[in-house]
Write a structure and sequence with these properties.
CATH class: Alpha Beta
Largest sheet: 8 strands, mixed
Radius of gyration: 18 Å
Structural class: alpha/beta
CATH superfamily: Alpha/Beta hydrolase fold, catalytic domain
Shape: globular
Number of domains: 1
Number of helices: 16
Helix content: 40-55%
Strand order of the largest sheet: 1-2-4-3-5-6-7-8
Length: 320
Amino acid sequence: MDAGEVRHWNADVNGVSIHVAEQGPADGTAVLLLHGFPELWFSWRHQMAALAARGFRALAPDLRGYGDSSVPDDPAAYSIFHIVGDVVALLDHLQLTKVFVVGHDWGAQMAWHLCLFRPDRVRAVVAIGVPFFPRSPRSISEVFANRGDGFYITQFQVEPGRAERAFARYEVATVLKKFYSIEFDDLTAPPGVEIIDFLEAPSSPLPWITDEELGQYAEKFEKSGFTGPLNFYRMMDMNWRLLAPWNGAKITVPAKLIAGDKDLGVQSFGTERYIKSGGLKSNVPDLEVAIIDGHHFLQQEQAERVNSEILSYLDKFTCE
């Protein structure tokens, strides 16, 4: 089957306008693809084509704050309830009662919490790079307090505008390239140094993204800015407080985690041990795990392997 063209449209849902890229037959089984930081719907271009070619309806929104979706000014508009609320409202807009969901990075966080809040809307979930973590006894800022001011989450969370001013010293394409080329496991800058200054941008193109593709990302971020994406981080402590009712709750939806063996997120904070020791399985009982060769931006870096892992998993449900 021909994958067909990518179609673009916007939907007014949950008080914002959400841009959606869509590929595949309109009557195909829906797969919702949720991107991470600092990405767009475009980060799913390889998966959309593969899903569409297999007859699925691939739906990839720009999350609020990104790309051609609305960019609310107030950081409080970026809570986990707002983002997951956008997703549920989008499903309602499309009259889709239950879908497959695939998420990467922050999109994986949103996918897990969609499963937590509304398991009735998810047939199965595939998370890339980020496992489900139960609510911590302490807030995010407390957990990472000992890492100091150079830690990237701390710099993103504190003084509004600080990270944006630091980012503005570089061309947008350079900022993106700095994040896309991260390969080490401790995103902590030396004292007095901004994380964006600490990160390096390689002079040669990255093997998994062309300069033209990087330019497509940059064009959108030049328009929408980085404040929306950074506000996701600024709401982390608030999210921790809001999630108190789900303390100890497990993910009951069938799930698969795909992670890169060189992903800084997997290598940090005891994540690999949590995945391999059975800790994740205890919180997500119906779980499969695939650790593959690769870094953080796995669905672009190892597109064919990730496509194979996603499609083989979805086949278990669509061939029943």
